[in-house]
Design goal:
Blueprint: H1 8-16, H2 22-40, E1 43-46, H3 48-63, E2 74-78, H4 105-112, E3 116-121, H5 155-162, E4 168-173, H6 179-185, E5 188-191, E6 211-216, H7 219-229, E7 259-263, H8 273-288, E8 292-296, H9 304-319, H10 338-349, H11 352-365, H12 371-394, E9 397-401, H13 417-422, H14 428-433, E10 437-444, E11 450-457, H15 462-475
Parallel strand pairs: 2-3, 2-4, 7-8, 7-9
Antiparallel strand pairs: 1-3, 4-6, 5-6, 5-10, 9-11, 10-11
Helix pairs in contact: 2-3, 5-6, 7-15, 9-11, 9-12
This protein binds glutamine.
Glutamine (GLN) is lined by residues 127-130, 153, 173-177, 205, 312, 424.
Length: 479
């Protein structure tokens, strides 16, 4: 048995037949991490002792016949989700020594479910980025081609998943940070509806956009992991009072009756020809499986990048005000008074991209500019949301590319922020609307790089996304 080949649902099966022990599985992963992580840099922290302890507990649970879905399943957690007693750095110098005294709701749920924590996954600092090059702990390499980025900001989670350095992972998505790296690394990434998963214990970037979600090797695992973390949480006032369905029930073959909207605004100049071909072919294959294609329009899509890069930095500038060297995190020791201490802590603690976002955010919220920028952007946001409401009157799901190209080269966009921001052109609008989206592999380029397709649905219809993605997985030529 090749342990590293087993995905989450495979592990559940072999454990239930008692064919392998979670301790052996965990040791195998830890060894793989030891061998590959120095190069790929997918993990910031490897929690070896905790993983072995959890694996031993899982073994007892299985022997006692009390196994649940994630018992003994080794996972990676993006390093901005609080884990009690384990450093949670947000890939920032300012939080390098921050060890939360509590678990986020999702991490608590995973622990209760018996999961094994292999470690904390690398990311762009405070989740701001699209390439994982903005990490205080160095870039992550794409396992498909080490000269390329894995995407961001959940680049470590996606790379770990693709390189089989974990069975599955959690990421977070504010404007594409689950779906874009999943697309670049050939894995599945699901951004749930805003409010579907508790954000308690997720270090805030842009609170009206952030969601935690699964990054997995296949769609079945995404359904399992989403089911394990979703649900109402009194500790997060934005979490929704919505029952969590059994997402496994969505994983059935056949698409008859499903209306798929194809938005013309997502098939534009600048979309890589190979990506276009793979996505269009997948949509065609879905039609052959019984789906009905409907042409739709999302006319305000073209303003999504501009609106997002006002709203997200505005919220970030306010959320990141708390890192002032007083209560926790880095404190600069060089200063002689309080103001100097704030200044030097923040200028030494934050990297260039985070600094840029704080400056943009402060500017667009400042008196005199608020109406022209922030208020306008929130109005555009309403129009974008309305576009989706209209579209979902005509179709059940929307199919479109997840990224305009395959993974780009390390260094290619780092000095050109606008070009970097444009790599999220197909993912940002979804967060502004609060709807869910999934990225699933649908093809390979000539250069042997994965190509993803994205499906979107109305709020709380993750079941439809999983169904579409499951069928894509069965019929696509991705291997
Ligand atoms: N790449 C986008 C940004 O830099 C999205 C990040 C995210 O989803 N966390 O803001």
């Amino acid at each position: 048995m090749n342990i590293l080949e087993l995905s989450i649902h495979d592990l559940a099966e072999v454990y239930s037949r008692k064919e392998v022990s979670p301790v052996e599985v965990t040791k195998t992963y830890l060894k793989a991490i030891e061998d590959l992580n120095p190069k790929l840099n997918a993990y910031i922290t490897v929690t070896e002792d905790l993983a072995l302890e959890q694996a031993q507990a899982a073994e007892k649970t299985i022997m006692a016949g009390n196994q649940s879905t994630l018992t003994g399943v080794p996972l990676a957690i993006k390093d901005l989700i609080c884990t009690k007693g384990i450093a949670t750095t947000c890939a920032s110098k300012i939080l390098t020594d921050f060890v939360p005294p509590f678990d986020g709701t999702v991490t608590a749920k995973l622990r209760e479910n018996g999961a094994v924590f292999l470690g904390k996954a690398n990311m762009d600092e405070f989740a701001m980025g699209s390439s994982n090059e903005h990490s205080a702990f160095g870039p992550v390499l794409n396992p498909w081609d080490e000269s390329r980025v894995p995407g961001g900001s959940s680049g470590g989670s996606a790379a770990a998943c693709a390189a089989k350095l974990c069975a599955g992972a959690l990421g977070s998505d504010t404007g594409g940070s689950i779906r874009q790296p999943a697309g670049y690394c050939g894995v599945v990434g699901l951004k749930p509806t805003y409010g579907r998963v508790s954000r308690f214990g997720l270090v805030a970037f842009a609170s009206s956009l952030d969601q935690i979600g699964p990054i997995t090797r296949n769609v079945t695992d995404a359904a399992l992991l989403l089911g394990a973390v979703a649900g109402y949480d009194p500790a997060d006032s934005t979490s929704a009072h919505q029952p969590v369905p059994d997402y496994m029930e969505s994983l059935t073959r056949g698409l008859s009756g499903l209306k798929i909207g194809v938005p013309k605004e997502y098939f534009i100049d600048g979309l890589d020809a190979e990506v276009e071909k793979a996505v269009s072919q997948t949509i065609k294959n879905m039609e052959d499986e019984g789906a009905e294609l409907v042409e739709i329009s999302l006319p305000h899509t073209e303003y999504a990048v501009a609106a997002y890069y006002i709203i997200a930095p505005a919220e970030a500038s306010s959320n990141l005000a708390r890192y002032d060297g007083v209560k926790y995190g880095l404190r600069s020791e060089e200063s002689s008074d309080l103001m100097e201490m704030y200044l030097s802590t923040r200028s030494n603690g934050f990297g260039p991209e985070v600094t840029r976002r704080i400056m943009i955010g402060t500017y667009v919220l400042s008196a005199g500019y608020y109406d022209a920028y922030y208020k306008k952007a929130t109005q555009v946001r309403s129009l974008i949301r309305r576009d989706f409401d209209e579209a979902f009157k005509k179709c059940d799901i929307i199919a479109c590319p997840v990224t305009p190209s395959t993974a780009f080269k390390i260094g290619e966009k780092i000095d050109d922020p606008l070009n970097m921001y444009l790599s999220d052109i197909f993912t940002l609008a979804i967060n502004l609307a609060g709807i869910p989206g999934i990225s699933v592999p649908c093809g390979l380029s000539q250069d042997k790089l994965p190509i993803g397709i994205q499906f979107l649905s109305d709020h709380f219809r993750e079941d439809l996304l999983l169904k579409a993605a499951y069928n894509t997985e069965q019929i696509s030529e991705f291997s």
